[in-house]
Structure prediction request, 537 residues.
Amino acid sequence: MALLRPVSPAADRRRHGVYFTPSELVETVVDLALPRLPEGPLTVVDPACGDGAFLAAAARRLPRARLFGLELAPERARAARLAVPKARLLVGDALRTGWEELEEALPPGRVELWLGNPPYNGTSPLLSDPPAYTALRRRVGLDGALPRGTSLRDDFSFFLLLAAERLRRVRGVLAWVTSATLLDAFLYAPLRRRLLDTLALEQVVDLGAGAFPETRVRTCVTVWRSSGPRASPRFCTASTEGFRPGRVERFSPEGPAWNLRPTPSAARALDAEWQSRGEPLDRLVPVHCTGLKTRFDELLVDDSAEALLLRVDAFLRTRPSRLAGYARRFGLPPELLPKLEALRRSPGLPARADPGLVRPFFRYAGARHRETLPDSARAFCYLDRRLIPRGDHRLSGSFDPHAHPVKLVFNLRELPLAAAVVEQAGCIPAHRHARFAPLEVPQQIWMSGPGAGRRRGALGPLVPNLSVAGRAWAASLGGVQAAFRRIAAFVNCPEVQECWAPTYGCWRALPVPLDDLPWRGGGGALRGRARPREDPG
Prediction:
């Protein structure tokens, strides 16, 4: 949102994505947009105008333009009216009925300049209103099944889709500040594809993480044109002090993720070399068993194994009618009481807690996992499927991957890639993009996947959890544990983290070279004589 100053408590700012836009950035966005405007009477629109910073800048630079704004909060709309008296400002929720009201107010037959900084909040409040969320997805034309692993979860994605649909019908330019996840995060691949199919991308400015002093989020500016010939867009980075563009180059977005960043030649060369000498990580380690997601961490997760066992045991020995006192004793929030009562009435609960069901639990910590697992990430969970609501433990049948000692933890869809070998029994939270692989699995699990654990009968002996090519490679290294260590070291080496991952890590499976390499422990240059690609069998 375009605010001249912060006006909301911190929790409200985070929920609604409300952060003020520095005046230098406002002027930069206007500078980027003006040269791309076609001739004709002009209307300037900001659908999340906040205190009116973008509209005020447009009023100074474009005195003949008609100005329109939409704002969710009445107090911010009043401030915008004082800042831009000539603008017509509406109060409403753009993601429900406000957008339609705004479009109805816009005069027809004019060029439109859409400026602003729409809210980005990671997880939209709209997700807690299923009817409104479904209606909005239907309106922007993405109500069908999205590609696996993608989503529309952030408010800025809906603002972009609505604005693109508007500019498909009228002449104009869109210049917005958004989260930099727009540029390459796999989650928003369908959003980028829709924008590239609907509008002409003119310029991308990667602002980095320093543009907004109150947040660490990385941001960018993208400039889109409604129609006309489509040339290769310009890409540049910008310093946070003064937002002066630098390192300008042209590029063409590449599918299937349609990243809005150029592909460096060094990353392209590494990818081609590794593709010719290895196997993709998701094929080399073929079975991905998702980790624990209890959805009731207040009851089932604790930093102390003793405290966890005491709390679960007391829960199992407390009658449903007395759970209010239990919640007070163990400091559980009162709003959880209905959930506690429903769980306590579930049939088949044991009479006492079982110490054997307390397992180490490792909170996924992203880049902090690169070298060793930090003590701060270690906790404990009570792994009893009867106590995990709605079956969201992600375990299939009798097979329990958490009982096996080595897990390769890696992040497939977000940057930077991260990996670690956890050399003890434990659980990994089911972060939506994190995966882990046990060192060994039952033979039927290896052949048919985790679903085989639901079948009756023996699952066979434990076998290495690697592909046919991976087994042969592990044998040449001295065993499967050595292979897992080699994968972890490779995923965290500088060539992957600093060169390959920023380009491909959000949507491509990492190709792991299988031949002998001169690096050890994830360091050094990756050089070596290429060998023929092994048959994965």
